[in-house]
Amino acid sequence: MTDSKPSLLLRSLHTLAGGLQWVGLGRADLDPDRLMAEATKKSGLSDFGPEPWSEPFQQLALSYDADPLLGPIGRGAVRSSLIGLLTNRLEITEEARKEPSLRTDPIPRPVFVLGMARSGTTWMYNLLAQDPGARPLQTWEAVRPIPSPRPESYETDPRIEVVNRGLKGLDKLVPAMRAIHPIRARGPEECLPLLWNSLMTPFYRGRVEPYREWLAQRPTEEFDRSYEFYRLQLQILQRYVRREHWILKSPAHLYSVDSLIHAFPDAVVVQTHRDPTAVLPSWCSLTATMDQIFYPKVDPKEVGQRTMRILKGCLDRNRRARQTLPAGRIIDVGYNNLIADPRSTVEHIYRTSGIPYTEAIDRAVRDLIDRDQKSERPKHRYSPEDFGMTRTQIENELGDYLHDFGHLCGHSPRST
After folding, report:
1. Is residue 323 part of a domain?
2. Cα–Cα distance for residue pair 252/311, rounded to 1 Å
């Protein structure tokens, strides 16, 4: 059974906010035009950057606005998030206008980790981030990429404390996140916030099914252009703080790996694989825990159905994209091998991609493995049945993936 239940604080806030909304108070406005006007007023800027952004944003905001189960706390959180990403777009576009050379600044051989959520992507990312020549993305700069970080204030930037306060608030509201996916303001974190700013990803919080259905119909060219905006954000972030190569991670890249490689032709792409009958309930547990903020009542079965749709969509698109790529273009890593021998897995990635695997890298990787083995983390418990699924149903839905990668992901078919 999953052990994630809403905290007393969060339940109290939902009750209070629901009472205020019942008497006509506290309903956050999610009208897309008014959200854009608010971001423009807040920033003093008006150029949101190149398309696609306007239709994706309209679709996203309207999907949230039409969700009848989105609670008042959730609507407020969504409103703040949408204004934040719009403000980021305005500031990113203005920075590129002031410094046009940013768009041509090279990003040599970035390393991307992608794979199903809960398939070892975070552990793989943290291992590769130990390379002294790697530039991992930190949480605080992913949330607020403007202004460009400076080396003299990289450890003391005021944005760090702002993000820290937000994470402390999240910890109070949803303490179960500590066991599932702990986040630190100054720790390496996935680049999903940069993709949120690009507005073409299915990995937004909550249900937003109309948006995801719309997104699934968009042509590849629109994803290519959205990744140009993603690339621009990295160019801004590396303006003053750079190393030999970026190391970045997000399961969301599964959805558009062809557009990722189009934007970064020399990228090293590492894809992790794990038995989806273990991945899916774990991902559902993470989703259900985060949903506690947005919805006064979370339906585990709906979470299971929604997460399955997202995962299947990602894996189907990834499969089609990989069929167009040269053999060996993506380095595949099995979860069981990664857990059993992480050091050899890292060395294999370096040897395969042609990047020198030095003694300094090896020493840093060994140190991280040693620290991890000594650490104790709360247990994260889950099962398919918690979310209205069975192992057989998952196997049937994701049969194409298991056909291609069952040998890597440690899947043992159930005997009949």
Report:
1. yes
2. 10
Distances (CA, A) of 409 to 112, 240, 320, 351, 354: 19, 40, 19, 22, 25
- The per-residue pLDDT for range 301-332, each reduced to its tens digit, is 999 999 999 999 999 999 999 999 999 999 99
**Does 52 sit behind a cis peptide bond, omega within 30 degrees of 0 on the bond before it?**
yes
The CATH number covering residue 390 comes to 3.40.50.300
- Residue 414 counted as domain residue: no
Does residue 2 fall inside a structural domain? no
pLDDT > 70? residue 87: yes
What would the pLDDT profile of 58-68 be if each residue is shown by its tens digit? 999 999 999 99
C-alpha angle with apex 77: 71 to 83, nearest 5 degrees?
130
Residue position matching structure tokens 């993709």: 195
Q: Domain total for the chain? A: 1
Predicted confidence band of residue 412 (pLDDT cuts 50, 70, 90): low
Ranges of beta strands (E only) in 87-137 are 111-115, 134-136
Place of tokens 């719009």: 86
Q: Which domain holds residue 156?
A: 8-405
